[in-house]
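Re: your question from the hallway

Yes, I did run it. Sequences:
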Amino acid sequence: MSELVINNLQVSVEDTEILKGVNLTIKSGEVHAVMGPNGTGKSTLAYALMGHPKYKITEGEATLDGKDLLDLDPNERSKLGLFLAFQYPVAVPGVSVANFLRTAINAHRKGQNPEDKGISIPDFRKKLKEKMALLDMDESFAGRYLNDGFSGGEKKRVEILQMATLEPKISILDETDSGLDIDALKIVAHGIKAVNKKDQGILVITHYQRILNYITPDFVHVMLNGRIVESGGPELALRLEEEGYEWLREKHAV
Amino acid sequence: MARKQPKKGFDFSRDMIADSDKVPALLREFRSDAWNAYQDLPFPTLKDEAWRRTSLSGFDFNKIQLPNGKAVPENITGSILTESILAKKSIATLSPAGVEINQTAKLKKQGVIFSSLTEAAEKHPDLVKKVLGKIVSPRDGKFAAATAAFANHGIFIYVPKGIQVDETLFSIGFAPWEGTAHFFQFLVYLEEGSSLTYIHESFSPEKNSQPSLSGENVEIFVGKNANLKIAEIQSYGDQVWSFGHKKALVDRDGYLEWEIAALGSSLSKHFITVDLIGQGAEGRVSGMFFADQTQHLSYNTLQRHLAPRTTSDLLFKGALDGKSRSVWRGMIYVAPGAQYIDGYQANRNLLLNSNVRADSIPGLEILNNDVRCTHGSTVGKIDPEQLFYLLSRGIPRHEAEQLVIQGFFDDIFSRFPLQEVGEQIWNKIKNRFSLK
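Structure:
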């Protein structure tokens, strides 16, 4: 049983306050959705939790299973079990998907046990093949340079492939649905569900209801102007789909 | 910062040239001419355009000796060409003590000449004459002249007309002695319609207590419709000053693929030229270097389109760490009347910290109108977003940087004729980078 606890998190980017006190708790097996219009701080929450150097924490805390995340380097946060599926994954030319994933797996194993010699090539191949099948990916993907020349859909699939391979405790999916056609969305959602079955907690950041048709959230939160202003069940997402955010703006005078 | 050139050049004299009666007449004459060139040519200074960014002031040339008469050490280490790469291959081992050739029976049977320059000059003077000093002239520069005059040893490779050499030839040049200068000559001649793959490594032990110097002249002729793949690896120790004049001529419809990897040395200054002399000739040059500490690596590359419908493609990539410095000056020249040219040159540099510097200077000289010549040059640090992405997957910073460097060089590694060679080059870089 794992737990990500975010308490009164305040974050600035280049001296502009973006998050003004976010509270959120995500447990194993739960799916949370954070929704909201563009520019309300959803992605900032994702990047700040993962430790991007541009995002300065000015107040508050975030812990994973009681361990303080905010003082750790991003790689240490990853080793504790936090994962971020990027909205815009960067390309790393010259580094194959397989080489990258193997390096990441080995870094995690070494985090567990400094004496670890790394995953064997046959074990790695087996694992990769299995996870790629889950996401309906051709095996040739493994040899391609990471995100280099990938289509939008391919990039998102590779993000979920990494999530499936690294088996994090808590995953943040930052706009994973954006730019996907319906077929790609189904595949990605299917992959996420398969991973979620293994008792991982998921935070879906989105401004569309669409992905939530495939991944039913247990909790829906609405973020406006750097704060979570409303929380509820899946029915909240449906109401937002129909009515937009205006009623919430009025209610909370944002 | 005041930069000075050495007050004195080499303290070499005419009587140090190997020109006894035992030396083939062809070489005696050649060395004598080279000595004259050596005397006529001034020592390069920062005022020379080609040397403007490379100071030689840190080297006591006058204290350097020739290695004549010294014995070969028993344990030769430092090569990246492992036993498994070299097993059952034709290999020439070069040291200042001489040249040792091991060749397969099949190679002999095909009529390929794979021998020391001395033996070739004795047995096949007419063939050697076609190349020696004809492609790299001793008058091309002070170090070209010094190499021509004082190189007692060299390699001569000749592939007869129409012969496809289906094994990879290897040579390794060993330059270990401290306080000495090692000069070698490499001659490769491919007759019409022949093909060859050849890999050479120059190496020395990683650590030396005193500086040493290496001079290499490489002369390559790719005949009509011939195909040469040549890879050169330099993995000298940290006290070696390396100078090279390397040039290839490619005749009509010939194809040259030239890979160059520089991993070591204190200072390197190399002139690399491809002359496309026959219609339809093509030359592709891929260079890479990894520099750290206070290394200074400098390359002047020249692609000369001297005939119509010729193609050249040059890519040099460098990663710099420590307080190292690199200089790349590229030039594409297109002769008058050489129509339908396709020429490309690019230099990409990856700066691994703020204390390094890479000078990247492309150039075009086109005396023609129907050409397509382009160049690209980039100098940049590791993208912080790339780094964050890798870190977010649990990969520690140093390892993430290593992954980016590996990726940066990957397209060059994949061009090396043997996959294992590319892997070995990467291992060497990785080891040096992880020692940080």
